[in-house]
Each structure stands twice: as C-alpha cells, then as structure tokens.
Amino acid sequence: MTVLDVKPLTDRIRAYNPAIDDEMLSRAFSFAEKAHHGQVRASGEPYFTHPVEVALILADMHLDPATIITALLHDVVEDTGVTLDAIRQKFTDEIASLVDGVTKLTRIEMKSDNKQAENFRKLVLAMSEDIRVLLVKLADRTHNMRTIDHISRADKRLRIAEETLAIFAPLAERIGMTHFQHELEDRAFAVVNPEMRTSILSRLDYLSAQSEDLVSRICNELNATLADAGLESSVSGRRKSAYSIWRKMQRQKVEMEELSDIMAFRVIVPEIGDCYRALGILHQKFPMVMGRFKDYISTPKRNRYQSLHTGIIGPNKKKIEVQIRTPSMHEVAERGVAAHWGYKSDGKSVRSSEFQQLKWLNDLVRVLENADTSDEFLEHTHMEMYADQVFCFTPKGMLVTLPKGATAVDFAYDLHSHIGDTCIGAKINGKMRQLATVLNNGDQVEVLTSATASPNPEWENFVVTGRAKSAVRKFIRLEKQKEFAQLGRGLLQKTFRQSGKDLDESKLLPALMHFNLRTDEELFARVGENHISPEEVFEQFFPGEKTAEAPKKSKGAAKKPSLNIKGLIPGMAVHHGRCCHPLPGERIIGIITTGKGITVHRVDCQNLEKFTAMPELWVDIEWESDTPNVVNAQLETVISNEPGSLAAVTTTISDHGGNITNIQLTARTLEFFTFVTDVEVSDVRHLRSIVAALQSNPFIESVERAKS
Ligand code: MN
Asked: CA-to-CA distance for 300 and 283, rounded, in angstroms?
C-alpha cells in the first residue's frame, strides 16, 4: 500500500495559516488512510487519494482546519466501518457534525432525480446548516468530475454529469463560488454534450485566430482610455466558457454564428467611486449596448456579488461585456463564501463558533433560502419559500415535499389517499416509528399498510396537510353517519313494532323517493339525526294509519298540566320551564310572566336567580299527589364507543317504560359519545328508575339530568 504524505497538505495550509494545528491534521490524515485501507478508486488508485485531493482543493480556497479535516474524513462514515461517535471521540464535536452533514448530503445525492432538481437544491441547502458542509460537498463533486473518465459505465457518467449541472453547479453559483461553478459546468458539459462543446470551442478558436491577439489588444485599449482620463486600473479579458455560450444560445434561441459577445472584460479600480467614473469614461468613448447595464454595487446579488456590468461596442467594433469592480468586490466574486474566511493577525483562524455567529453568514443562509427568480441559471424554475418545508424520500428515492411539522401520516396521504387510509405504521430511516412522528429533511419513509385498517380519528390532532386532514375528517363523518344510521334504524324498528308492524327493509324505496334520498343508510341516518321522524317513515309504509300507542306528545293546549298543580291563580295559563323540565314529584315554583301566565320551574332552576329581586312574581305551587301525566325530561348520557352501546341506552330506556322523543349527539371522542336524550316519563320517580337502570349498564359511563 502506498503511504500518502500529509506534508504537501500541511505546507499548503501553512502558507495562509501559519498557526495550523498540524498534530490533529496528521492524526486525521492517518485515521482516514487507515479507514479506507484496501479500497480503490475506479482509476485503480488507493481510495484515500480522493479525500486528500478534496482537502487540497479546500486548502487552495484557504479554508479553516475543521473544514479540511472534514474533507479528509468525508467518506469514512458512508464507506467504511467508522462511526460518527468514533470521530467525535477522536476529533471534535464540530468536526463530527460537519462529517455528519456531508454524509447526509451524500445519501441524498444517491437518491436524486434531476426532474426535481430545484427541490433537491433546496433540500441540499436546507441540510447544509453549516455552509462548510456544502463547500466540502462541492469540492468532493469537483474531484469526482475531474476523475469521471475512469468510470467505465457511460450511463453512470451521464447521470453524475447531469446531476452536476442540475444541482451542484447552480448551488456553487448561488453561493458565489464561481471557480467551482465553472469547472463543474465545463467538465459536466464535456460528458453530457461533448460534440456541442467541441464545436463551440473550435468556433471560439476560429474567431480568435481571425483577429490575432484580440483580447490583449482590447485590454490595452480599455486600459489606455481609462488612463487618459486619469484613472488607474487593471484590465483583463477572457473568452466566455463554452457552457455559458451554449446556455445563451439555448436561452436566446440563436445559432453560434449569430453570437457576437463572446468576450468578457474586467476592469478593477481602487475605490467604489472609481467604478462609476470608469463606467462614465467607457460610455463616453464607446457606444453602449442598450439593456445590458446592471448596477450590482448599489443592489448586490443575493450571493453578495458586487460589480457594475455593461455592454459596449468596444475597440474594433466588437460587442463586448465589461465588469467593473474594486479589489475587494473581486475577491468576493472569485471566492464567494470563502472570501469571508478570516485569519487573525496572530495567524489563528477565526474560530468556528465566532464564525458562525457572523452576521453575514446568517444573512447568506437566509439568502440561500430564498432563491432569486431573476437569476439566469434558475429562470425557468418556480421558486417558493421553503424554510417551512421538509423534503423526504420514499424507499425508491421519490422526493416528497411536505410542510414543516408533517408526520408519517401526512407522508402516507401525500403518496395516495388509499395508502393514508390504510396505514398502520412507518419505518423512518429503517426504524419503526410512530405514525405521529414529525419528519425531518432527508428522512426516508416507508409506510406500512394493512388492507383492513382504517383511519384513526386521533390523527386529526397531529396531521398538518390539508389532504390528510380532509381525509380523516371525511372518515369521521362517514363513521358518524353509520352511528346515526344504526340509531335511526333502531328507532324505526321500535316505532313499527309498537304499531304491530314489521319494518320490511326491502320495501324502503317509496320512502326513499318521498324524502329524495338515495340509500337505506341515508334514510336511517336522517331518522337517527332527527331530521325525519319515525312516524313520517311509518306514514310512507302505511298511509293514513297512525303509529300505535306511542304516547302523543303533550304539546300545547291538549294537555292541561295546570290541573295537576295546586296553588295556581285561576284563569292563568301555565307553561313548563324549558330550562329545567320540572317533573311531577319535584319541588316547583311558579313565576308570573307578562302575557304568558305562569311558568313552572324546579326550585333549583338557575333561571330563578333572575327573579330574586321581584318577589311579587313568585307563586307557591306544588304537584297534586296523583299525577298520571307525561312529562319531558332530558338526560345527558356518556356512552363508550363500542358496537351495541347506543342500542343498550335505547333498550334500557324503553324497557323501563320511558319514551325517547329525541336523541342528539353532542360530543364525540375516540372513546366516548355524549348524547342528550329527550325522554317522556310519568314523574320524577319514574325518571330516577330509568337513570338507575342506565347507570348499572356497563356501556354507560355517566347519566345526568341535562343542564340547560
Ligand atoms: Mn467523496
């Protein structure tokens, strides 16, 4: 085994950071070399050459020691038996968390699908909480692109190159790492469309050959023009890259022959004010190309890039692009994020914790979260805020985008409503987890289903997507309807039985047509909900016949409850308080109500409080001892949510001679239903016996007189 040497790396770092801790660097070097021992690259070289090259790329960008050590270790967790804990113990928490970040990005990368490129870019950014993670990833990708020719399978080369163009080059551009961007683009272009790249390059060669030394002649003339006006500057020029020319050809739908500005020139002047002076001087001397001027100094790009851009018909009547900037703007333009790495005067790098608190980094991360729609590299992608989104995968690598806080159930419903309806569990990153588990970026979620499963009403408490919410609610609604149907059917059977008839369910059609309903179930539910009375249905079966014996409701003037009450004022109408439903046998009080007569209340009725200041309205009354009467009582019953529990209530009440005139479902939880039942009873003793019978029923949790 070739033992690689750490020295070239240490030397390169020491050149910009003399205070480097080379003990830890050497330790990381041998640790990673040992971990990768025996592994080889597609080129046949030892695998460890790859992390070393990645570290060298980052050293060239003058990055801090933690980033470079992370580069050395970046593949050990994914590709060797080394654990994150081992890294944390041997190195630092900071390095372990950077390695963890890179490992997670690598895992996503393996699942990527270019059709969802923008989502992947967002995912990568969302996961690169520390920007250094992304820098290591970009360096990693750059080295992989440098060595892509060693990969023997053409389809694999193509996939990697397409992914580079779709995801990594735009990301490099977005954080201002133009070196990475241009190298990644050019190398990927060579794989994706080698013929086009070659023909653009040869056209460029032809154009330069036509006018020899054109670039340097234009540079000199621009420089002289500025010097004549008394402005010190340094001018450089270059051909644009084959890939950027190709992009422009596609965007503008033009042929290569029609492309004119294939050269870009850069003017560097000492101060910001000089930038605008230089612009003025050039515009005075050369015609300006309309629509090409951009002031990125007053309005920097989101990646903090600053410059003035203009297009002019320059020397030799060539259309050229000119960028004007100061040296510090140039530093940012060339090195992007890395330009902000600081090293203190004593040679120590800015400590990472300090570094992370720097405002610019926070700004940058926020900027990354809001991609710029006008950005030419992203112009055809639809941007949206995604700070409040999470990105997860199916086991097959399909990306599922969900709002933050989404759970495994939301994920299941996002795949398909049937998967949501039948899900019973979830494996998240290979481990069984609860359905309520909130998902994180990059989670791989496998939904477990069972054909016989159904949604759990409790899901409504934790799902966040509209899709999952409405599915669960729909299910609850249908369940409720089922309950009501069961109740309504029971009420119908009872009414029919009491009239000596059988409810023949095969003959419901005329009733359905009469009530304009489609199914038996709907009819039963309407009866259960008290929208249709059992008597109305009976009427459809046996027109003209009265439902038997059902004690006629004691409404209105037909009954004279006054006859049963002593102490009334002769000639005054009597009403029973709807608030307290006084029953024969209970202590009662009459209140004189203007225009209505006397209203009878239970002595403990809360409404009596209203009349405490008006003793003149109070009338002492009591029930006659023998009161064979029918009175309404209201019971609030809480029953357990089990098959048969509702029937137990209705049966118990009717077995004890009570007559149910109305049932209303007032509350429903997973375990319990609450019903308010109107019952006709003869007196308070009768009611008490019914309550006692209900209380002894195992299905019934509680029974009380309903509070108004
Ligand atoms: Mn790698």
From this structure: 22
Separation between Cα atoms, residue 2 and residue 407, nearest integer Å = 49
Please give the pLDDT value at position 347: 42
Structural domain count, the chain: 5
Instruction: Judge whether 355 and 365 are in contact, CB under 8 Å.
Output: no
Neighbours of ion ligand 1 (CB under 5 A): 75, 140
Distance between Cα 340 and ligand 1 center (Å): 25
pLDDT tens per residue across span 456-494? 888 988 999 888 988 888 888 887 788 778 878 888 888
Distance 9 CA to ligand 1 centre (A): 17
Is 679 a residue whose pLDDT tops 60?
A: yes
DSSP β-ladder status, 597-602 and 574-576: parallel
Active site positions, annotated:
78-79
Measured distance CA(423)–CA(449) in Å, rounded:
4
Same domain, 75 and 209: no
Residue 127 lies in a domain: yes
The Cβ of residue 201 has, within 10 Å, a number of other Cβ atoms equal to: 15
pLDDT, average across residues 98-116? 73
Cα(465)–Cα(405) distance, rounded to whole angstroms? 9
Residue in this structure with the two tokens 């007559």, named with its chain if needed: 659
* Contacts with 426 (C-beta within 8 Å, 6 or more apart), sequence order: 408, 411, 412, 432, 433, 434, 435, 437, 445, 446, 447, 448
In this structure, the answer to whether residues 251 and 186 fall within a common structural domain is: no
In terms of residue numbers, what domain contains 508? 475-541
Using alpha carbons, list the distances in angstroms from residue 388 to 43, 370, 382, 643.
43, 12, 16, 42
Q: Within 13 Å and on the Cβ side, how many CA atoms surround 46?
A: 16
**Which of 600, 620, 640 marks a domain boundary?**
620
One domain, residues 22 and 149: yes
Query: Residue 637 pairs with which residues in a beta bridge?
Result: 675, 703
Same domain, residue pair 153 and 118: yes
In a domain, 660, yes or no: yes
How far, in Å, is the centroid of ligand 1 from the Cα of 74? Answer: 6
| 50 CA to centre of ligand 1 in angstroms | 7
Task: Identify the residue whose tokens are 């112009």.
Answer: 379
Q: What size, in residues, is the chain? A: 708
What's the CA gap between 556 and 600, in Å, rounded?
A: 15
Q: How far apart are CA 68 and CA 59, in angstroms?
A: 7
Helices (H), 529-564: 534-541
- φ and ψ of 175, to 5 deg: -100, 15
Q: Is residue 126 part of a domain?
A: yes
For 683, half-sphere exposure in the C-beta direction (CA atoms, 13 angstrom radius) is 14
62-76, 357-371, 453-467: least confident range: 357-371
Beta bridge partners of 324: 267, 308
Q: pTM, whole model, 2 decimals?
A: 0.54
CATH code: domain of residue 259: 3.30.460.10
Centroid of ligand 1 to alpha carbon of 426 (angstroms)? 31
Q: Are residues 295 and 210 in the same domain?
A: yes
What CA–CA distance (Å, rounded) separates 366 from 360?
10
